[in-house]
Amino acid sequence: MSDPSPPPDAAEIMTVVHEAVGTLELEPAEKREIWRFAQRELPYLWSQRTSYFILGSYRDPYLRRLRAVQNELTKQLGAYPFIMGDLIELPTERLNSFDIMFSLLATYSDYIVGVFEKGSGGEAPELGEIDDPPFFDKSYVLPRDYAWVTDTHLESKQHVIQAALEMAFTDDLTEAEGHSKIESLVESAQATGIDVAEDEIWDVIGERTDEEEEPATYSWVHLNKFRKFELHDRCFPWATKEELRTAVAELPSPTPRPDWEAGEST
């Protein structure tokens, strides 16, 4: 295999790489691997398609939700949604390949979409990477079971869903007690003007019970970061697979490009 030559944007690419690795001096072999990665993956981000860098856990069952987001975006003409785990790996024994790959992909993507369902794992540091410049302005978060903590117990449908899930999965209540508490919860929410139906709540609980997945929990740090996105209208909570598809529909649509409008796919 011949050594890759530096791409046209080599200087700009190396600026991004050096920001990722700090003051380390790259070895010739490391530079070659970076060029190879850039030549293989970055042209997709420079193409006429609108790129969506999807973040989240690669473990099952979480990966299934990343695929669902990817599939929903794929349906849109002119979209290129991708997951870093599907790309070629940057083989560097000395350097942190994740930092380099993430920085390059995040820099050249049009949008970054984070799907969060728990407060631990690889997606936790990813959230810390996108909640500040230079990536914040093009990032969106889709946290499962998220509702901002307020002094008032119930302020939105998401608060009701979160509270009902906690009741349904607690070991301190019998099935009858849990059912009664959830009924009272929905009645209280409806009395305050929250548009939520009891059948809707039981559908959420039923789906989660079938999947044997307890409510998502987050640290105070996570909640504050989600809140920052929420205040900028770039946080879309969800509880079910259908709600996740609805959340994806809230993301920016691909920017129309003349060739794509004409039906070309190159």
How is this structure best described in words?
With 266 residues, the protein is an alpha/beta fold. It folds into two domains: 10-146 and 216-261, 3-Layer(aba) Sandwich (Rossmann fold), CATH 3.40.50; 157-211. It has eleven helices and four strands. The chain has a four-stranded parallel β-sheet with strand order 2-1-3-4, sandwiched between helices. Strand 1 (50-55), helix 3 (62-74) and strand 2 form a beta-alpha-beta unit. Helix 3 crosses helix 10 and helix 6 packs antiparallel against helix 7 (175-191). The longest helix is centred in the first third of the chain and has 18 residues, at 28-45. The chain is elongated and about 70 Å long. It starts with 9 loop residues before the first helix and ends in a 5-residue tail after the last helix. Mean pLDDT is 87; it is low at 260-266.
